[in-house]
Design goal:
Blueprint: H1 5-16, H2 36-48, H3 66-69, E1 75-77, E2 85-89, E3 96-97, E4 111-113, E5 118-121, H4 127-130, E6 136-138, E7 143-147, E8 160-162, E9 167-170, E10 184-186, E11 191-195, H5 198-203, E12 214-216, H6 230-258, H7 262-272, H8 285-290, H9 293-296, E13 301-302, H10 312-318, E14 327-328, E15 336-342, E16 348-354, H11 361-372, E17 382-388, E18 391-397, E19 402-403, H12 404-408, H13 418-437, E20 453-455, E21 461-463, H14 468-472, H15 508-524, H16 544-553, H17 571-584, H18 595-605
Parallel strand pairs: 2-4, 3-5, 4-6, 5-7, 6-8, 7-9, 8-10, 9-11, 11-12
Antiparallel strand pairs: 1-2, 13-17, 14-15, 15-16, 16-18, 17-18, 19-20, 20-21
Helix pairs in contact: 13-15, 13-18, 15-17, 17-18
Length: 630
């Protein structure tokens, strides 16, 4: 029906109304009072749980200042100035009841320890939507029941998952194998059954699965299923052979009649992504499909005409059928997995397989054509791509020295000297500034991190994954939920600008924030999401930006500088370098440096250090003015 006349009259005023002001970044205020959501979380936890021993009696909420709330029993906040709750450690409190739904208001928490209580009921499937940044989850020694939710795989930052000593039943979801950061797993002492997902069985020992009599497969047993006698085994083999032959014939006729059923397989792939995640990266089911003769002949589309044509078979041979031993760090692992490929002529490539691409083949090819035209000395060139059924493979020039994140923490190797770190910073700034200011419509990266800054053989910085979020983000209303960047969920933990919490739309200032975090990584030698503050490996409870700001507030800014850089005569340059990093990570976007300004500031620091080469053929004429809307 047509809209009411009043609504038609109001539309022009609605369109001209100024956009709502972005919410203040967490912690950007006075810090006198905790976040309302965090208070709501703690009030709800106390209300929903039975506390027979009175361990939560200090949570009286009569004084809700940060200094009081952050000292509640079992509560840790990010830092004295930052009132967000980072840890709920309520182990052994004797608490009773179901897992509180009010945990959804402690979204910034990275540790949840409710072990050694008397909690009952199922693990909520939405738990990882409530607290998406969990690094450690310990629900062991309770009375939790029901199945293990496959949605636990959405806690993608988990390093430790402990669910031992409960009454959990059913199979272990294959999707848990997608937790590529998981270092500790304990599912012992439950009622789980079925086969252990192969990738989990390969990564964790027998103790992680003990006390579950129904489990089978590696590492608790060599195989699943009971042995059969000679006659029974013969019957099973005969039935299997007959069934396989019949299935192959039916599949062949179906394939001939439906034109390979491309759309059906695409839907199956999207629908099965969640439950079949364990096999995604072990090079099994999807690589097996690519080995088919008609697929191996698929051409690799290259933007520059090659001397010899490259086919999918060449990429498969160069990666040993995408064997996991060829996996390298090259950009976001959430969007895709990168493999090092060495062709027969000795040339090295990086092949990135996208985990999910909701675009149609026509739209994908159009995006490839756009990204393939981006050529700059500090951008990793996209050389080509390959479309095989619903698989999308991107072919890049290989950067021999690897990702900055890997180079910075290589054990046993000499740390990078100051001149090299400064040159890397200037190069990355030059590339990102060109993306922002070299085009009338800026190219927003949206997923910048030290893993997306690659280094060539001369340690020159090159940015990868340019344009990738446009390939893997699902447009609203297209259906499906396999994109790792759905609903604005982009960026790696520790690099995400604070304004994205309330307005998840990629901006130039959001990229500038992530770049500032990389600058802090370069000068400190620390990681964005995990700061180690002493030789014992004790970690700071917060991100790198939190740690740096805390040291600055306490007058200890010199402690930020990596020890190998101290006392080498670079103090003045490092001081100016830190000023740029702080300017890029200001909480409010309008106070943050643009990449144009950041690049020229860093280039000025590098004058006389062979890091300030002029690239006049790559001018930066657009969007120079700092703007809160960029």
């Amino acid at each position: 029906m047509p809209p009411p006349r009043l609504l038609l009259l109001l539309i022009p005023f609605l369109l001209l109304a100024p956009p709502a002001a972005p919410q203040p970044a967490p912690g950007s205020g006075s810090g006198a009072a905790p976040q309302e959501d965090d208070l709501r979380c703690l009030r709800g936890v106390k209300k929903e749980l039975v506390d027979p021993d009175g361990r939560l009696s200090s949570w009286d909420f009569t004084n809700t200042s940060a200094s009081v709330v952050c000292n509640y029993n079992g509560i840790t906040c990010w830092n004295p100035q930052e009132s967000r709750v980072i840890s709920l450690s309520l182990s052994g409190f004797g608490l009773q009841g179901a897992l509180p739904s009010s945990l959804q208001y402690c979204r910034a928490a990275t540790t949840l320890d409710l072990s050694g209580n008397a909690l009952s009921g199922p693990i909520p499937p939405a738990l990882c939507d409530w607290v998406p940044f969990l690094v450690s989850l310990d629900l062991s020694s309770n009375a939790l029941s029901g199945p293990l939710p496959a949605e636990l795989a959405n806690c993608r930052f988990l390093n430790s998952l402990k669910l031992a000593g409960n009454q959990l039943s059913g199979q272990i979801p294959a999707s848990l194998a997608r937790l590529d950061r998981l270092k500790s797993l304990d599912l012992s002492g439950n009622r789980l059954d079925g086969q252990i997902p192969p990738q989990l069985g390969a990564n964790f020992g027998k103790d992680s699965f003990s006390g579950n009599s129904g489990l089978c497969g590696r590492p608790v047993s060599s195989r699943c299923g009971k042995g059969l006698g000679g006659a029974g085994l013969g019957i099973v083999i005969a039935a299997g052979v007959f069934g396989a032959a019949a299935s192959l014939l039916l599949a062949y006729f179906f394939w001939r009649c439906t034109g390979k059923g491309k759309g059906g397989r695409r839907r199956q792939r999207r629908g099965g992504s969640e439950s079949g995640g364990a096999a995604v990266e072990d090079g099994s089911w999807w690589a097996e499909r690519l080995r088919a003769a008609h697929n191996r002949l698929a051409p690799v589309s290259l933007f520059q005409k090659p001397i010899v044509k490259v086919k999918l078979a060449d990429l498969m041979a160069a990666t040993q059928d995408f064997n996991t031993s060829h996996i390298v760090v090259a950009g976001s692992s959430r969007a895709g997995t990168a493999y090092r490929a060495v062709l027969r002529d000795g040339s090295a490539l990086t092949v990135k397989r996208l985990h999910s691409c909701p675009l149609s083949e026509k739209a994908f090819r159009a995006e490839m054509g756009r990204i393939g035209q981006l050529r700059h000395p500090n951008i990793v060139p996209l050389l080509g791509f390959c479309v095989v059924e619903d698989e999308r493979l991107l072919v890049y020039k290989h950067m021999e020295s690897g990702a900055l994140s890997t180079v910075m923490k290589k054990p046993g190797e000499a740390p990078l000297d100051w001149a090299t770190r400064l040159r890397i910073a200037v190069g990355a700034a030059r590339g990102l500034a060109w993306l922002h200011h070299g085009f009338q419509v800026p190219q927003i990266h949206q997923n910048l991190s030290s893993s997306a800054v690659l280094l060539d053989e001369d340690y020159e910085a090159r940015i990868t994954d340019v344009g990738l979020t446009r390939l893997v983000r699902m447009a609203p209303g297209e259906g499906g939920d396999t994109s790792p960047f759905l609903n604005g969920d982009f960026g790696e933990f520790g690099y995400v600008a604070p304004e994205y919490a309330s307005n998840p739309v990629g901006t130039m200032k959001g990229d500038a924030y992530a770049f500032g975090v990389i600058l802090f990584e370069l000068v400190s030698g620390q990681e964005a999401a995990a700061v180690v503050t002493d030789v014992t490996g004790e970690g700071f409870k917060g991100t790198l930006v939190d740690w740096v700001n805390q040291l600055k507030a306490s007058g200890r800014i010199g402690d930020v500088v990596d020890k190998p850089l101290r006392g080498k005569g670079h103090d003045k340059e490092i001081e100016e370098f830190l000023k740029v990093a702080f300017a890029c990570t200001q909480p409010r976007p309008k106070e943050r440096y643009s990449m144009y300004r950041a690049y020229h500031s860093l280039k000025g620091i590098g004058q006389g250090r062979d890091v300030s080469e002029q690239f006049d053929e790559f001018p930066l004429p657009y969007n120079k003015e700092d703007s809160d809307t960029m």
